[in-house]
Amino acid sequence: MSVNYLNEKKGLTSWLFTLDHKRIGILYMITVFTFFLVGGVFALLMRLELFGAGETFIPASVYNQFMTFHGAIMVFMVIIPGIPAFLGNFFLPLQIGAKDVAFPRVNLLSWYCLIVGSIVALCSLFFNGVDTGWTFYTPYSIRTDNGTLWVVLGAFIMGFSSILTGLNFIVTVHTLRAKGMGFFQLPLFVWSLYSTAIIQVLATPVLAITLLLLSAERIMGIGIFDPKLGGDPVLFQHFFWFYSHPAVYIMILPAMGVISELITTFSRKTIFGYKAIAFSSVGIAAVSFFVWGHHMFVSGQSEWVGVLFSFLTMLVGVPTAIKVFNWVATMYQGSIKFDTPMLYANGFLFLFVIGGVTGIMLATLAFDVHVHDTYFVVAHFHYVMVGGTLMAITGGLYYWLPKMFGRMYNEFWGRISFFLIFVGFNVTFFPQFILGFMGMPRRYHDYVPAYEPLNQLSTFGSWMIGLGFVVVFFVVLQALFKGEKASSNPWGAVTLEWQTDSPPPHENFHKTPVVGKNPYEYS
Amino acid sequence: MLYLLINSAEAAWLPVAATDLAKEVDQLIYFLLEISVLASILVIGGFVYFSIRFRRKSEADKPPAITHHYLLEFLWSFIPFVIFMFVFGWGWLVYDKMRDHPKNALEIHVYGQMWNWDFVYKNGRKSSRVLTVPVDKPVKLIMSSRDVIHSFFIPSFRIKQDVLPGSYTALSFTARKKGKFPVFCAEFCGAGHSSMLATVHVMGLREWEEWLVKDPYKGMSISQIGESVFQKSCTACHTATQEKRIGPGLAGLFGAKREFEKGGSLVVDENYIRESILNPSARVVKGYGNMMTPFAGLLQEEEMTGLIEYIKSLKIEQKDK
Ligand code: HEM
Ligand SMILES: [Cu+2]
Ligand SMILES: [Cu+2]
Q1: Which among A6, A178, B159, B298 is placed 20 to 30 Å from A327, CA to CA?
Q2: What is the per-residue pLDDT for B318?
Q3: What is the pLDDT of residues A472-487, one digit of tens each?
Q4: Pairing between strand B130-134 and B126-128?
Q5: Residue of B47, B64, B98 lying closest to A523 (CB–CB)
């Protein structure tokens, strides 16, 4: 094998202190998938407990800790860093024809922030755990056990990882584009990362401040959230969602970018409505700052505030719908090939449409009052985050695996993994919409017997998803060690990363890549 | 405990709609469902059809470069926008009715606390876990919490409202069906969240008026009164045996020796039990968290005495091997 970023230096320290964006991307990959495994095990255990009404095998206090760990790990350590810090780190510089990101040292620092933050969060395990849910609502989070402080602090530190990555990407996109590459020659994946980065930089500090205030409230009793001291517990919810709503776009925008890449490549056709997709990313990013109140329609906020937030949320629906139509239009008259990544892209479309329409339902005031904080919401956000983002990460992993490691994966087993995950996902989460209509609240360790059959179905589904990801794991391992050698461009794709070797050399390109007029010039 | 809960959760779909407003909400729900299914079929059907129709036939395929189509793009932005505005308006209209509190409504105070619902009626009558209301009369619940945030959710009425510590929120309804309807706590509040249940018992006006003036403890011995308070207010955290829940099991407590989190110990007497109930954080039992809500001001004297006598009467079962 020729010299490339993988074999150019050897030894553990060459990885732990690397400044190469590709190696840092791989570090993130290992980290994110490890956390995904942990979060996934918690999820399976929860579903197992919910298999029957009554206490099955874990008591409520432990269940609530599992729920909190599952949610916090999946949000802060899997989905938020998942696409930007792993796939983005690796491919953003390659796609714009750069040698690296603008600040390689800051890039490494951001990975360490994630690691230190997660270690601090795990310390909570020694202090009676945390049982607040990933939302840390006050005043419960002020009263409950001390473990909360560690997780809050951990999330605070991890926030810096997110901010630093975002900052790095913004500067990189502005300063390091290859000659001849204007903003409208950027691949859409880069556009989506750029929009995401703006949110990361602007919103994450608000989370940081909120978490600091919460810690100060717990330690010193400053009386800002605690009603006993004259504070307002609902203020916390405003602060929290002011970050966390934009954060759901940190989770989904990059996924949309990946899907844009997959659909053009496997349809061999230029993207339909390039500018519409690019601008809708930025539009979503901007409006996303003004919709947080849709999480609080029944929190006691005034009716007019509720109406305003409902209206603004409907507005976000429009650019989101536009993107979906553009992807479908791209497939029109294409030359479509269903390799595994494309299967995942179609899986994404299918599930994201359901996640999207249920989102509009939830934005409708009177509808939300009934299903707020029920399993309908659990189903909705899993359709968006798992059906959307996680499908995109997995599809992206298959798509770029040949580039990252120079090896092909096994197509047959790749497809099997898709069917298991796709079918399992629907079996797990579709029944939860119905449970929500029936009135089953979320974060319930136990439920009335009428809810049992659908919960059992949902638990069966979770095993299928679990199995699907085990298959993914083995497909990747097999590819790494025994996979066929990949050519530099196995899919016939046209973005710049496919102009260099697989795997790429240390500084990405042997000769300056050629930038075309249209990033998706197929014909 | 949960198995005791009632018929109307049985429906395999939306629970029975027991108010007029609930029926209006259902119309909205059905409309949203229909249009969503239609939209999903169009989009999903579209790309599934394209996937089959335009699959790659040979590596030499040359798809056309279609970059945009202004009319189409305008339509698929504008039509969703109109639909969204329509459902927004409809949702608002119904929501506005939910927030409308009739002036002549019968007012009942609701208190949430970990993990119990208490109801206080205008004449001073109290109940726990069962909210009793007359049929066909507007009712307004004035709600607050004694500790953390809870949420009062009546699926059959399609309404829900968070219950906050330190301020009041309200919920209004006019029940049109007699019967018992479940109430869930819908805001996470700790270990007992999923057992923080109640029932709305809708009855005829006459029957309700009789219920309102009935002395709930009539003809009971002092320790029976204690037992009935215990069943309503304490079983979320305590058992009448030695089994632990959130708090210690209370059997055999009287006369036993207790050690405390902050050090010190004593032999349990009436004063200690009284203090444990009224001001539990004064001495927190070793091995437990400071989780118990203070009952100071919430119990009448006969209830307090009843509880003490009842707890004294709880003996450790001899069957234990
Ligand atoms: C393997 C598939 C998964 C299963 C079976 C699963 C299952 C569950 C269950 C049972 C809950 C508790 C619901 C409740 O009572 O509120 C939950 C909550 C949650 N899940 Fe998942 N989950 C899965 C994957 C994911 C992934 C990939 C994410 C990534 C974003 C995720 C994010 C969340 C979040 C944020 C919560 C809310 C936690 C909270 O309420 O604090 N889940 N999940
Ligand atoms: Cu939101
Ligand atoms: Cu609760």
Answers
A1: A178
A2: 59
A3: 999 999 999 998 998 8
A4: unpaired
A5: B64
3-class SS of residue A354: helix
- Identify which has the larger pLDDT, A18 or B11: A18
Q: Is the dihedral of CA A212, A215, A220, A224 positive or negative?
A: positive
Q: Which two tokens stand for residue B4?
A: 């005791």
- Counting ligand 1 atoms within 8 A of each CB, the residue from A35, A66, A70 with the most, and so the one to mutate, is A70
Side chain identity at B178, as an amino acid letter?
A: K
| Integer angstrom CA distances of residue B185 from A43, A407, B198, B301 | 23, 53, 9, 29
Report the CATH number that the domain containing residue A388 is assigned in CATH: 1.20.210.10
CA distance B206 to chain A (A): 31
Strands B126-128 and B150-154: unpaired
Task: Please give, rounded to a whole number of angstroms, the shortest distance from the CA of A362 to a CA of chain B.
Answer: 10
Q: Which ligand is nearest to the CA of A288?
A: 2
Looking at residue A56, what is its pLDDT?
82
Which residues lie with the beta carbon below 6 Å from any ligand 1 atom? Answer: A 40, 43, 46-47, 67-68, 70-71, 74-75, 78-79, 133-135, 378, 382, 385-386, 390, 428, 442-444, 462, 465
Provide the pLDDT for residue B243: 82
Residues B258, B295, single domain; the answer is yes
Residue B59 lies in a domain: no
Average pLDDT over residues B182-198: 92
Angle (nearest 5°) at CA A95 between B59 and A275: 85
pLDDT in tens, A65-89: 999 999 999 999 999 999 999 999 9
In this structure, the answer to whether residues B231 and B189 fall within a common structural domain is no
Average pLDDT over residues B94-123: 92
- Phi, psi at B61, each rounded to 5°: -50, 140
* Eight-state DSSP code of residue B108: E
Taken in order A344, A350, A351, A355, is the CA torsion positive or negative?
A: positive
- Specify the residue with its C-alpha closest to ligand 1, atom 40: A133
Residues B46 and B112 in one domain: no
Smallest CA–CA distance, residue B15 to chain A, in Å, is 6
Asked if the bond preceding A505 is cis, omega within 30° of 0, the reply is: no
pLDDT at position B316 is: 79
Is A12 domain-assigned? Answer: no
The answer as to whether B262 is a domain residue is: yes
- Answer whether residue A11 is part of any domain: no
Q: How many domains does chain A have?
A: 1
Domain, as residue range, for B172: 106-213
Ligand nearest to the CA of A244: 2
* A16 within domain boundaries: no
- Please state the domain count of chain B: 3
Q: Which of A233, A373, A374 is nearest residue B165 as measured by Cβ atoms?
A: A233
B89 assigned to some structural domain: yes
Say which residue, B286 or B111, is predicted with more confidence: B111
Closest ligand by atom to B191 CA: 3
